[in-house]
Amino acid sequence: MKGVVFCEFVDFVEERFGYDVVDAMIIAADPPSGGVYTAVGRYEFAELAMLIGALSTIVGRPGPDLIFAFGRRLFGRLVETHPHFLEDARDPIDFLESVEGRIHVEVKKLYPDAELPTLTPTRLGANAIALDYGSCRPLGALCLGLIDGCAAFFGVPLDVEAEPREGGLRIVVRRGSRTATSAASSAAMSAASSTLVEV
Amino acid sequence: MAGVDSEALARALRRAERERAARRSAESLLEEKSRALFVVNTRLEKANEALVDALASAETATALNRRLAQSDPLTGLANRRRLFEWLERARSAFGGCGGCAIGLLHADLDRFKNINDALGHLGGDAILVAAADALRAVADGAEALRVSQADGDCGLAPIVARMGGDEFVVAGFLRDAGRDASNVFAELGERVTRALARLAQPDGSEWAVGASVGLVVRRPDAPLGDLDELLGEADLALYRSKARGRGVVTAFDEPLRMEAERKRAIRASLPGALRAGGVAPYYQPQVDARTHRIVGAEALARWRREDGSVAPPAAFLEVARELGLLHEIDDAICSAALRDLNRWRAAGLDLPKVSVNVSAARLADPRLLSGLAPAEDRRGLCFELLETMLLDDVDEPTRERLDALDEAGVRIEIDDFGSGHASIIGLMRIRPSRIKLDRGLVRPLRARGAQREVLRSIVEIAHAMGVHVTAEGVETFEQASILREIGVDILQGYAFSPPVSADRFERLLRQGFGGDDFGGDDLDDDDVAVNAA
Questions:
Q1: Is the pTM above the cut of 0.95?
Q2: Do B29 and A36 count as a contact with CB atoms less than 8 A apart?
Q3: Considering only CA atoms, which of B350, B345, B361, B355 is closest in space to residue B468?
Q4: Could you give the CA distance from residue B100 to residue A187 in angstroms, rounded to a whole number?
Q5: Of B139, B142, B114, B140, the residue nearest B127 (C-alpha)
Q6: What is the CA radius of gyration of chain A?
Q7: Taken in order B83, B86, B88, B90, is the CA torsion positive or negative?
Q8: Residue of B352, B453, B354, B434 lying closest to B387 (CA atoms)
Q9: With a cut of 0.95, is the ipTM above it?
Q10: Chain B closest-CA separation from residue A75 CA (Å)
């Protein structure tokens, strides 16, 4: 897994909980790298899972909730570092439709060794889309967090439904009636949680 | 408090250590990536150099192909295509340039074939290269054709082209020529003949080659016209140079233009005339030397044109040869002659034989025998073959064809005997039924003299071989008497009759010639006009 994800995760923990928690998380997880991460490096996904597990114990929050929050923040960071990915996006539904066919293709050009999930879109109308999420890693909650971050960025409320499928999730996103900072439904989070292996 | 401070300090130290370690790790990874990029960059630079070299090679090949498409590969001179492009540019400049003129010289090496046979192809190629260099020097040194910057856009440097084989063209564009254009280009032609008179070989030796030149000059008052026509006129002038004895320059002039137009008219009308039966035989009687009875006739091709005039072969056979019509003419004359012969026989007019002239190409044609009429219709048919076609070394296919003709009842007569190199052995090998003494042997014949005795000897030898003798070109009573005295069997000539139409000949068959009577008094105007042509 790209080192940038680990760096962003450490920054997320520091920003949300303070460096004390970062330090405690690293000491508790005792990852093989010693908690030393650089954006240009690569580290095993198991280290991230160890860190999430240790953080969950330290802050007393479920792992999927922490991953969801990380995903929400991560979307904002991606917008800061790669603004050109959103140049042609008019709304979050259009943007989500373009992730697999354009965003992931551009990411692979920049990082040929990136291991990306698949997010196969099926448009359900002007205001809805179905996304078939597939990944070799149990990070469905991260995907839901990124979708939530997308809604916040565009300022468009989205209703998100997710159900487990073999190898991933079936996520249905619709324009919602709630406020901008909408959260995924609890069912969706529950479904996403099922993809996360207990660490 | 001290514990809290120490814990915070320890955490700060751990953070600093992690960040330092992360920085070192990043530097190491970046260093590694940098080395990898250097390797990739080096490979890309090499690939780029190879690509640049390949592009340069492709450009060179393209330029070479373009040059080859426009240049003669042996001499480097312009080729036919580039000459045509030059003429097109000249045409454009021609229209807007009042006093200018275009001159085109077509040069053909005179003795190249002999030299090529003697030296072989490599030596021949060296001669052609030397000729090209000589012509380049002539064109470069032509002061009057030089294009100066002050000339503006009305001017064109001279061009030298190789048209193939040993034929070359030098073309020039002359500004402000006035009336001197013909003289300027004639002088250029003279320089060409002098330059090509002797050509040097790489080993320092010189060969006397020589060239004949045809020249055509165009001024704006006469349109430049079709480019093929321009070259055609230069060709006609060239052929005239050859006929004049070679090594000379002949300018295309009004008589040549009329000749060219005459030939153009023949090319346009002869094929149709042939199809419509406009080319038909005229018959010149052949009489027994003693009785003057008509015993045969020679069928000679005549073209009765739409305006009623009748043209002899000399007027159209050259064009017929160019158009590949000689076979058809031979067939037409032979078929018509046999039709007339059988028609006369059916009318009770006995004509033992009719001779038709057969060309060398026709004799060599395997279809000659299969094209013969049925045996009963070709009785009396005789093929006249020129002596020059039947030299000592008659090849086997020709020998076999002659034997087959003999078996088919077609007699062979050797025409113009005495004009070539026929020998006794040749006569024995061919075994003709008759020889026809060339008119050159008959014309100077006198009552006494060596000529007469030579002819007597020829006749005696022929008779000893069982070969009959005809004399053609008999124009006077005296000649007829002498020829009869020395033993010639058959006489043919204007003393008896010129070639006449089938209808006129039929009247002669009915009237006949008797004793010393000659049939010339009854000739009608048409026949006289034809034979005077």
A1: no
A2: no
A3: B355
A4: 99
A5: B114
A6: 16
A7: negative
A8: B434
A9: no
A10: 24
